[in-house]
Amino acid sequence: MELILLGGVLGLIIGISGVGGGMLTTPALTLLMGVPIATAVGTSLFFSAITKIFASVVYLKRGLVCIRLATLLAAGSIPGAFLGSYSFHYFFQLNPSLASKVVPSFILFMIVASCCFSYYRMFTKNEKIINFDIRTKPFVIPVIGFIVGFDIGFTSIGAGVIVASILLALCPMNPSKIVGTDIVHGFILSIFAGSIHYSFGGVDTKILMYLLQGGIIGVVFGALISPYLPQKPFRFALNSAVLIFAILFAKKIF
């Protein structure tokens, strides 16, 4: 029952903001459910991929997806995800004890860095950031995608929080369309990275099924109400909650 409720809450957050597939799910599984980090990463990726299928349909039907942006991001993130996923499992096979410390620490770093970047994006008055449109630099987008892809393959974190933060900072689109674009790209990326983790036995299908029972309902509801919510206050509250969660995660690691 706890996993179903957890899946519902995570699905709702993913549907509203595009964030939570890895940034919240991986720490939640390790911190609250005691799932080993090597299994939590792969399970989070598959949970993110499956829930984002349903959210993507809602956003696509409403015309809240920039297909060109999602395609350019995927062109770089898919090879990045393959490299990151294989690096993750090679690391655990090479030195399991070191990997069990380094990977959670890297996840913690990515959570804190992503939140700080998101805060900066929300409150900056830098005219260059405010007026810059990354769509005028199409050759840069796959590079960003590759970095995000490697990160999500290695830690399960990045498809939502980093891409959404970058697009909100560097692409003057409606926030709901940025979330929709982020979710569609996140689905493509998560399914590739999750498949690699699954091939290594890094997915707990029993936990995944419980999470999805609540997650699918939550993500559809979140996607439906997202355009009607003030995105800036919601993201501020979400980032604050995630930072608190990161502190608890750090206590478990150290």
Estimated share of beta-strand residues: under 5%
Q: Roughly how many Å apart are the termini?
A: 29 Å
Helix content estimate: over 70%
Derived structural class: mainly alpha
Over all CA atoms, what is the radius of gyration? 17 Å
Low-pLDDT windows of residues: none
The mean pLDDT is 84
Q: Spell the H/E element sequence.
A: HHHHHHHHHHH
The number of helical segments is 11
Number of strands: 0
Counted up, domains total 1
Largest sheet, in brief, is: none
Q: What is the overall shape?
A: globular
Features:
11 helices; mainly alpha; 81% helix; 254 residues; single chain
Explain what this protein looks like in three dimensions:
There is one protein chain. This protein is mainly α and 254 residues long. The protein has one domain (2-253). The chain contains 11 helices and no strands. α4 (67-94) packs parallel to α7 (140-155) and α5 packs antiparallel against α11. The protein is globular. The two termini are 29 Å apart. The model has no long low-confidence stretch (mean pLDDT 84).
